[in-house]
Amino acid sequence: MRILVQKYGGTSLGDVDRIRMAARRTANAVADGRSVIVVVSAMAGETNRLLKLAGCFGNGTDRQRLREVDALVATGEEVSAALMALALQSLGIRARSLTAHQVLLRCDGRFQNARIRSVDSVELLSLLETGSVAVVTGFQGIDDDGNVATLGRGGSDTTAVALAVAMRAEECEIFTDVEGVYTADPGVCPDARKLDRISSEDMLELASLGAKVMQIRSVELGKKGRIRIHVRSTFSDREGTYIMPEIDDLESPVVTGIACDANQAEVSIVGLEDRPDLLAKVFEPLAIDDISVDLISQNVGTDRTVTVTFTIEASRLDAARASIEPVVRDLGAREVLVDRDVAKVSAVGIGMRTHAGVAQKVFALLSGAGIPIRLAISTEIKVSCIIPSRHGEEAMRILHAGFGLGA
């Protein structure tokens, strides 16, 4: 059985005409002898509309409320799945819509940010064997208590790749409103090039550093499951970008792409006692509260007190401050300084493994343009710098041009 998984995002299903267009694409794949699983997002704007309705009754974060919010927003995908199935049936294609309960897509119980644990392929296989298209709701799973839990923004990508892995699909097509993965955001760098292919490692880094084409957990699943992902436009027949599980480093450019993440904040805890377990104590409450930090530095002053600085998603800043407040007080810090006016600009490429001097070139390009670097980190396939947010787009253009990534 030649299984193909197709995922259609909200813009691809924005109205009846677009749903018909998507259904014709699926019908063509069926005519080509493929057994097709379609994963759908909610129609464009529908999730935001449902969240706004939920907001009419408060904005708390207790589990009971989050459970009901997830139950509400998950209905957006159910509407899309039923409409897509009807559209396929109108074209003479056998199709059935299925929810997370029906495909037994199990996840943990973290409402609004759940992680997939397992997929039961039995129901899907039996449906495909009858010659039907399975239209599955994206963005959601069921926890051990049978509750619906959503997978976070972009979670339909994760659903699609998880199904592709579970079903051992030949390929997973991600249909969206862009034609593929570019060397940078074309809205910032007009000469950005569309990449014909990119390694899973490079895409994973770019997704984690601010590129918004793919949801990071979906790329991670594809890499682990060795699934080829094809990111392409719903509104064009041209090929997009293939995200490949493996690409030979020797065939890769030194830098594949440039990303910038403006959703960053910098936190500095000043006047801490110098002790061996300091970092463990500072970051323990953040780990317990499932709050991820990024760049970390520790500096010892002339008075032998320590300043610990780290960056975090700006949207998680208030939660992080509440989390570390008790331990910071216990450790006797003088003050906690916060700067929301920062961005993280990054150069990514698996080709860096075999080339020296990339970090120095990044630093030289930015400093040559008068852009101050607050923090920096270099790994074998990325160089990231924290800079004032007002320089974010300028820094992207400078690095993009400096590494010769333009068309």
Describe the structure using short key phrases.
about 400 residues, alpha/beta, Carbamate kinase, VC0802-like, 8-stranded mixed sheet, 6-stranded antiparallel sheet, 13 helices, 18 strands, about 25% strand, globular
Mean pLDDT level:
92
What form results from the Cα inertia axes?
A: globular
Distance between the termini: 40 Å
Total helix count?
13
Q: The CATH topology of the largest domain, please?
A: Carbamate kinase
Number of strands: 18
What portion of residues is helical?
Answer: 25-40%
What class do helices, strands and sheet pairing give?
A: alpha/beta
Strand order of the largest sheet: 3-6-2-1-9-11-12-10
Identify the quaternary structure here: single chain
Mind sketching the topology for me?
Elements (H helix, E strand, L loop, with lengths): L2 E6 L7 H16 L3 E6 L5 H10 L7 H11 L1 H16 L4 E4 L1 H4 L1 E3 L8 E4 L2 H8 L3 E5 L2 E3 L5 E3 L4 H12 L4 E6 L20 E3 H9 L7 H10 L3 E5 L7 E4 L12 E17 L4 H11 L7 E5 L4 E9 L3 H14 L4 E14 L9 H11 L6 E4 L3 E7 L3 H11 L5
Parallel strand pairs: 1-2, 1-9, 2-6, 3-6, 9-11, 10-12
Antiparallel strand pairs: 4-5, 7-8, 11-12, 13-15, 13-16, 14-15, 16-18, 17-18
Give your account of this protein's structure:
It is built from 13 helices and 18 strands. It is globular, with a radius of gyration of 23 Å. The mean pLDDT is 92. An eight-stranded mixed beta sheet has the order 3-6-2-1-9-11-12-10, with helices on both faces. A six-stranded antiparallel beta sheet has the order 14-15-13-16-18-17. A two-stranded antiparallel sheet has the order 4-5. The longest helix is centred in the first third of the chain and has 16 residues, at 16-31. Helix content is 35%, strand content 27%. It has 407 residues and is an alpha/beta fold. The chain folds into two domains: 3-177, Carbamate kinase, CATH 3.40.1160; 258-402, VC0802-like, CATH 3.30.2130.
